[in-house]
Design a protein that fits this description.
Structural class: alpha+beta
Largest sheet: 5 strands, antiparallel
Radius of gyration: 43 Å
CATH architecture of one domain: 2-Layer Sandwich
Protein name: Stage IV sporulation protein
Keywords: Membrane, Transmembrane, Transmembrane helix
InterPro entries: YqfD
Shape: elongated
Organism: Anaerospora hongkongensis
Pfam families: YqfD
Oligomer: single chain
């Protein structure tokens, strides 16, 4: 046992020794093998620590030395246990609280379903509830593998499921099957999605309605949804389409139709710009939504500042069992802003305008398009404080989309 631990178990008392000759008292303690430590002197008084058992032995030594001893502090297990005994109901309440928390922690109170897109989480929760997974059940009674297999059997759309425990919460993680899309066999034409000049056309089904080099407008038919009629072949004559006297057989046209397409976009930037920055001051508003009621825990002045921006955070507690009552908190933080003007060079304004124009045109160009050329033009304006850029982009892309034939 270490000396510090021994002192804590036995208890220690800090005493103040006063008198004409406090050194005589210390010498008597040494002679009686009474251990003193932590000695210090303030004015004419001497302070020292002594074990609780030795404290009761120093009374005759105090009389012999002609000094007075007073207690200034104490520490150790005897004093701590005495304090606890005085507040035994408080300690008992803390112990009962810990036991209650431990008991409640062994139950499941919240169930979350993640990973669902097409499948309803309520459907998965219902299957889990049939096999005993519901709020208020003991963790040890839950058979995870059995519930996982039941969900896979009951819901064919789910390909994988895993049940994970996090404290009093259960997370049912699922992965849905990727079902192949069913092809629509309804008759349809391939029409142009935008204006352009045809560069390539490959008809996999149907009859081509345009050829390479043709200019088309949005909505023009590119491949007709009509099946060609082929004459029987002979060794000397290849198969050829014949004039149709009967109604044409309608099919769903398919193929690849590529065309050159042009896009334009504009971007502008001012030489004199207004910059807004946060000052660091803020106001907070906290609202509590309980069912259909709203209660303000903290209100912010309106308007909070002359110039400001806000951030909103929503936090919602999980629903209890099948209750429709929801509890949600809304925290809105208002940040004060200060505005000041900043002048930039013409080169910086051109770069900003160019970046905005390129960003704008990039949003309307399909990802599959092949960019052939970019043309950047600086426009002349009557406004001296404004720079405007025009960006033109030439692409080659598939412009055909399917359009059903009305019969």
């Amino acid at each position: 046992m270490t000396p510090k631990l021994k002192k804590y178990i036995n208890g220690s008392v800090k005493i103040c020794i006063r008198g004409a000759m406090p050194e005589k008292f210390i010498n008597l303690c040494v002679a009686e093998q009474i251990y003193l430590w932590g000695l210090s002197k303030e004015n004419e008084d001497i302070y020292a620590w002594i074990e609780l058992g030795d404290f009761y032995r120093i009374r005759p030594l105090v009389r012999r030395s002609g000094t007075r001893v007073t207690v200034k502090a104490y520490r150790g297990w005897p004093f701590f246990s005495k304090k606890i005994w005085r507040r035994k109901m408080l300690v008992l309440g803390a112990i009962m609280c810990l036991i209650t928390i431990q008991i409640l922690a062994s139950y499941i109170w919240f169930i979350d379903v993640v990973g669902t897109k097409a499948t309803s989480p309520l459907k998965i929760s219902a299957v889990a509830q049939e096999f005993g997974l519901k709020p208020g059940v003991l963790k040890d009674t839950i058979q995870s593998k059995k519930i996982e297999n039941a969900i896979l059997i009951a819901i064919p759309e789910v390909s994988w499921v895993s049940i994970n425990f996090t404290g009093t919460r259960v997370v049912i993680e699922v992965v849905e099957k990727t079902l192949p899309k069913q092809d629509d066999k309804a008759p349809a034409n391939i029409v142009s999605d935008r204006d352009g000049i045809i560069t390539e056309i490959i008809a996999l089904a149907g009859q081509p309605a345009v050829k390479k080099g043709d200019t088309v407008r949005k909505g023009d038919i590119l491949i007709k949804g009509v099946a060609p009629v082929i004459t029987p072949t002979t060794p000397d004559q290849p198969a050829q389409p014949v004039p149709q006297t009967a109604p044409a057989q309608l099919v769903k046209a398919s193929g690849i139709v590529k065309a050159r397409v042009w896009y334009e976009s504009y971007g502008e930037a001012a030489l004199q710009q207004t910059i807004k920055e946060r000052t660091g001051r803020q106001e907070m508003e906290v609202l509590l939504h309980l069912g259909g009621y709203e209660m303000a825990l903290k209100r912010a002045p309106q308007p909070p500042f002359e110039l400001y921006e806000s951030e909103i955070t929503h936090k919602r507690l999980p629903q209890w069992r099948n209750s429709q009552l929801f509890v949600e908190s809304t925290i809105q933080v208002y940040h004060e802003l200060q505005a000041f003007s900043q002048e930039i060079s013409i080169e910086q304004a051109r770069d900003e305008a160019k970046a905005r124009a390129l960003q704008s045109v990039q949003q309307i160009i399909p990802e599959s398009a092949q960019i052939l050329a970019r043309n950047i033009e600086i426009l002349k304006l009557n406004e001296p404080n404004l720079v405007r850029i025009k960006v033109g982009v030439e692409t080659v892309e598939d412009i055909g989309i399917s359009q059903m034939i009305s019969q």
